[in-house]
Amino acid sequence: MKNIYILLFFVSALVISSCKEKMSEEEVAQIGLTPCRKSASFIKSTGFNPSHTAFSTTEKNYKGLVLIQLPQSPADTLGKKIWQDSSWKKFGFMGSITTDETGNIYTAPIPVVNTLDIPVMEMNKIYKVDCNTAKMSLYCTLPKPDSSTEIVPYAVLGVYYDCHGQKLYAASVSGSNRDEEKGVIYVIDIKTAKVVDQLKGYDAAAVFVCGASGEKRLLFGSTRKPNIYSVELNKDGTFKNNKVKTEFTLDQLGPRGNDKARRIRYDKLGNLLVHGVEFNYNLAAQTEKPETGYLFNYNDEEKKWQFVKIVN
């Protein structure tokens, strides 16, 4: 009798676990597509219009993060305006940016021209800008490489927050060298700032979560090949398995023919927009790198992504 109760307990646990993981087709289809983020509340105190602002880390003559107010109409002759809190530049140059559903901003250090601004061993970090106070502070520190000898002078190249699973994804190449790919994609619980899962052995920059294929998947762009890969996720945003597959490639597309994906997002029409740049681990000012937009959509009948066109 005791063995029967034990068996029933484990069966019940499995059923409960399965129920937690189950997602409807409609739910999956909206992942990454449904608007889930709002503007940081501090933006209004700057005098900027939140609906016409954007955050940037690539403005010339500015170190770190800046807030930009874009012209509200073609007739606006004043052009864009820039605002920066003093804490946004104290940690050096920054790269990829993402925001959560309450308006907090997350970004990571990136070297520009040289590593004098921030040592390689100190790069594998993520910083957070509080949506209320506008102050930037250290959010979490990821594992450091075993050695700085001959490793690439980069760390976190991509960050993305998935509202559906409430997880922050960070793609780091820390510890990789010219011949060995030792990158890790970290899954971070947004509330605790703790790493809850990781995918090892992939150098990536662009990261994005969507459900266009009927499965919740993390898309990520390789920094070594012009390929975009994916891996399936559980509902909570952790990796369902480590089975990585190739989704599509930027090879022979665009003016350079071998771009790597810097950023992946949906556009307003639900197409997948991939921002591609030349990348070979050499240090260079990010603002000086020409960028090309590549538009893809998902063919439900053929179960694959199809290239649509190049966009400026």
Can you tag this structure with a few keywords?
single chain, 312 residues, mainly beta, Neuraminidase, four-stranded antiparallel β-sheet, globular
Largest β sheet strand count, sense and barrel closure: 4 strands, antiparallel
Can you tell me the residue ranges where pLDDT is under 50 for at least 5 consecutive residues? 5-19
> Helices and strands, in N-to-C order?
HHEEEEEEEEEEEEEEEEEEE
Cα-based radius of gyration, to the nearest Å:
20 Å
Count of the domains:
1
What's the total number of strands? 19
Helix content: under 10%
Distance between the termini: 69 Å
Identify the CATH class.
Mainly Beta
What is the annotated CATH architecture? Answer: 6 Propeller
Structural class: mainly beta
Percent in strands: 35-45%
- What's the overall average pLDDT, rounded? 90
Give me the CATH fold name.
Answer: Neuraminidase
The order of strands across the largest sheet is: 4-5-6-7
Q: What sort of overall outline do the alpha carbons produce when their principal axes are compared?
A: globular
Number of helices: 2
Q: Summarize this, please?
A:
The chain has 312 residues and is mainly β. It has helices at 2-21, 25-29, and strands at 53-56, 66-69, 81-83, 94-99, 105-109, 125-129, 136-141, 156-162, 167-172, 184-189, 194-200, 204-210, 217-222, 227-232, 245-249, 260-266, 272-277, 291-299, 304-311. The model is unreliable at 5-19 (pLDDT under 50).
